[in-house]
Queue: 4 jobs
Job 1
Amino acid sequence: MSFDPYAIRNDFPILERTNRGKPLVYLDTAASAQKPRAVIDAISEFYESHYANIHRGVYELSERATRMHDDAREKVAAFLGAAESREIVFTRNATESINLVAASWGRQNLGAGDEILITTLEHHANIVPWQLLCEEKNAHLRVVPINDAGELDMDAFESLLSDRTRLVAASHVSNALGTINPVREIISIAHERGIPVLLDGAQAVPRFAVDVQELGCDFYVFSGHKLYGPSGVGILYGRAELLESMPVYQSGGDMIETVSFEKSTFKSAPYKFEAGTPDIAGAIGLGAAIQYLSGLGMDEIERHEMELTAYGTKLLEAIPEVRLIGTAAKKTGVLSFVVDGIHPHDLGTILDMEGIAIRAGHHCAQPLMERFDVPATARASLGLYNIPEDLDHLGEGLHKAIEMFR
Ligand code: PMP
């Protein structure tokens, strides 16, 4: 069956709801994606019929819950093309996954005078943990600049790598501009010098197929809630050899092998990084989201969102008062813009009255806003359930707002 976004919309109960009494036009999927019935049902069914804590019970229900949780990890591993499911660590979100790497791998591998290289395009989640680590270790944070289109300056990237660079941490897709970064090139250049690479895939995994082995990255992180799954669950992929070499991060129940008051020993990866009761239903819901997306086909989703991005770009370019921020040759899913004489927050409020949900602000990328010399942008972001009519509504709403401010 071919990909039909009009039919797919029926899988998402919330799209039948209204916003301010108007049909909901949801253009904020980069902040969080709406949930298909398959995910909602998988979570309800788990709580209704299979719920128990995992890893602890000898009774049937607990064994079943444990199997379902293990199965979710297998699904994530297959979805990312990981070699083994022990390379998949469940966290709360992409932010926690990055903090885990910074606290564990970072503390072990960074010394005074060392460097971590990030990019101007990063979300605060891929800036602040490295900044704090550098402060703690007397190390330095280096930043790859971008051009006016919002593309990385790859010559600068190469020249910023030094014999003190210990890690490159870069987004796969920018949440604020939609730029798709040349991650293969980044990894190949960094690896030539023996430098590991962490990719923040929060905005990439919902938009196209990602294969961590094919990319060759060392760490890859994302959040379940942006992948049409529940909030409260995130993923850290790490190459097995790296995860095994890393010290524990949080400690307590479930991650130990033995405990005495003198000394404790720990399980192997991924369990040594999963202290305490995890979001069991969240993991199962994420597994259901992955199954749903795989059923639709990531390549079809990619094509659909690319087409919509091109459609939305044309539509916005045709409005003289609108200036697009982020015009990379390779971009997807995000349309960031400013409108002459209207603050993005006012624009967000006016569009909200029309039923249109967009985001206005710095998008947790303040240094990037500074680079473009704007305090904020309006951002319409796309998901697999969006249709050209959603963007037509956005265009009409913008014309209305421009008239109001004339
Ligand atoms: N990185 C990117 C590129 C993001 O878009 C986001 C969420 N906006 C994050 C990291 C952080 O995700 P979370 O808040 O789910 O941890």
Job 2
Amino acid sequence: MDLQTLPTDSLASFRDRIHGRYQEFRARGLTLNLARGKPSAEQLSLCQELLALPGKDDDLSAAGDDVRNYFGEAQGLCETRALFTGLLGAPIEQIILGDNSSLAIMHDVIVYALLFGLPNSPKPWSKEEQITFLCPAPGYDRHFGICEGFGIKMIPVPMTGSGPDLNVVEALAAEDPTIRGMWCVPRFSNPTGDVYAEETVERLAAMPTAAPDFTLFWDNAYSVHILTDDAPELANVLEAAERHGNPNRPFVFGSTSKITLAGAGIGMAASSPDNVTWLLRHMGRRSIGPDKVNQLRHARFLKDQDGLHALMKAHRKILAPKFERVHAMFSELLSGTGAATWSEPTGGYFISLDVMDGCAKRVVSLAKDAGIAVVPAGQTFPYSQDPRDRNIRIAPSFPVIAEVEQAAEGIALCTLLAASEKVLAERG
Ligand code: PLP
């Protein structure tokens, strides 16, 4: 039943019926949170063993270094880097391990680029009149927050379902020398779940850019976070960029925040040999080195890449049913109404809900009144400006499954209420 084609009197009674259901929902007095993509307690418990590792008699790395002390290997323990060659698509020598947050490494790369310039920069970014980043949107609010904090101009680029619209990206990057960077979450984008197609990766790696130091901030936060058997693979951007003569273009980032412990994981970066040398030089001034005990702890716990993938399967068992419940509830209440569309991701942590244009703020505020927290409308866009006021990011990982289902029901009711109010208002 498409709301747009309902006769006005039927639409008004539909709106009243949904309003009644919404009031009943509100009266339940629930407190539900679908705002941040946090692992649930059940997921964190998969890694409980980490809290007791490496153990009181285990303090030597494979190279024989005492992890309790300061020592070389600023890049991180070899055995721990070896766990992530597949995840990052890079050899051990091109991987740098940091402390727990990959976002901190991305932030620092931008700070160093501003202060000193990247290997291919004519001068530090801060000495340029303007620095601009391309921002596939909807995207990750914290990426946009870094740019906003440093006064980096952001240009939103639409997503297509298999990555950003490359015709827009290529045209802008070729003509505008202020464009120095682009945020990419290439496998299971936050929040749309897009996996960049092979052709997208190739074109990003190969495209001519007006700036000599144009950089892909390739945030592969969810690269191994599969939810279904048909999740598409991602092409290797480092190899593609090297093949096309642009080896310094991508910086790949990742972390174990949603593999092991979000509060005590390992952040990491991989790039070309030049970029790795550049980053290590600047990181080496900032710190003697990150937490080596945590690196050894992770090596002991994950053991090898098979161990990592086995753990991801256990996460999937917990996560996939939550995503399925949201889809089932949205399908039951929203299908055919024209009130919303939503992504059905094959991995990652989010569902991207597009409500009727001009309704996202209203839906979020109705949800808040009914005890459901989601990120504020607009936050998935640069400057928190969703031009169509329609996108809402749903993060089903943290609550228990019964709560996920209730929250999805509540959000669907808010979506229907806002849409029917809007269509009625338009008819006057
Ligand atoms: N990148 C993306 C795309 C994310 O969604 C998140 C967390 O939600 C992060 C990075 C944060 O990662 P970390 O904990 O490694 O800083």
Job 3
Amino acid sequence: MDIINLKDNPKLYYVGGVVRDELLGRESLDVDIVYEGNAIEDCASIGEVIRVNPDFGTIRVKVQGREVDIASTRTERYDNKGHLPQVEKIGCTLKEDVLRRDFTVNSLYKSISTGEIFDFTGGLEDLKNKKLRVLHDKSFVDDPTRIIRALKFSHRLGFELEDYTKKLRDEYLENIDYDMCFKRIKKELIETLGLNSDELFEKFINEKIYKLVTPKEVKWPSAGIENLVNKYSLNSDNIWLIYAGVLLDLSRLELTRKEQKILDDFNELEPLNFENDFEIYRAFENKEIESIILFAVLKDEKIARYYFDNLRGIKIQITGKDLENIGFEPSPKYKEIFDFILAKKLENPKMTFSDEINFVKENFSD
Ligand code: CTP
């Protein structure tokens, strides 16, 4: 964890995930550093200042070739529940700073200079017992994204919600006020549902965490998603949306154009009685992979798998240019020719380019 030599400063602490993960013997995703005091005023001399954010009291400095973010200790107030908090005081004590944090296991500080751990909330005990515990009764009301964060941490770390925390969460979910910051909810959904786990998603549905997104009832879909994603959706950034799509109503989340297209493509796919492979191919060929997986989950798994396994890789090789070269003037007839060749190729995927040309000549020459 000694990423950089900041050891000379006795007021610098590691905090949050990095301390938790080190104690658990796990690799950390990122490193959060906090300065007990005003970091902008006091830490500028540590290295080259790259950026400051006076509203939050954060500073980015470059030391020994590496950029490090340092936050000031601060207190926060939630005037508008469910939205970003207001910063109240920059440069408070660690004991005050801890109160703005989500769970006890994320509230441990480790002095960079001495290595001493500061535990104001019982985080070490909860770490030992694998429990996620909020710091106060209004924690989820202040910041409902913590409900999704709890699901993420419980999955990643194998922890459970402590009973009273669970009760607070369930009370919140039963009486949701939808005046909240959905941008933050979406960010946590992307991280959490993006972990691609049926087990996690089952909890998301059965424990009614989805109520953060829609008041409509949602049931656990019978088809698993994890396996379909592993098999067919290589490198997708939108795995989370395959899961979230099960909710059907994502109107509160601000979707990007690509995300909206995934849902639109899914809505266009109907579980029809397809007559032949050609009809299946044409229905699916230009649809987003995520949309087809969602179709598999909610509408017809067999057809979707059949398309993926048997048809998706088939492509005709001839192009409009080739048709011109063998004497066909560009015209709407091209589409008829391509359809014909595609239908033939679906029957016999081994067809070569010259087979395709011959088929055209045999069937379409005057
Ligand atoms: N935090 C919080 N409430 C939030 C987000 C963050 O209290 N809604 C606090 C927690 O103390 C958390 C720290 O800010 O540990 C850093 O947040 P983040 O980087 O999101 O979480 P990590 O705990 O570092 O977890 P990860 O392993 O995902 O990086």
Job 4
Amino acid sequence: MAYDDSNIFAKILRGEIPCNKVAEDDHTLAFEDIAPLRAVHVLVIPKGAYVDWRDFAATASDEEQAAFTRMIAQVAEVTGIADSGYRVISNIGRNGHQEVPHLHMHVLGGEAVGPLVDRS
Ligand code: AMP
């Protein structure tokens, strides 16, 4: 899928709409989910234009990929959930129920997160 820069996260990155920033580095931004599903619900996104993991893994630099990984750990630290535990989720494509076509990780915690997936 080609990257569509009209998506909501691209607008956040361009400063066209606000976000509640949690952390940032040269390659990555972390901000609070607008509709939190747990006490802590932070989204981690690369600043580059990547739709999904195929796109990111194939074309992002090693530096960008390392920054993305490290930011997840940094978010857990700054939100105080590193010791109590948390879940990291990435929804991709139709079956993964990805709503925003810019690669992102959900970091959820601050309370029990529950089963991995709905078993129904
Ligand atoms: P996904 O289904 O994995 O694509 O999740 C997209 C997430 O983006 C959802 O959890 C939304 O609540 C969240 N979201 C949508 N718009 C915004 C926004 N303007 N600021 C922060 N989070 C948003």
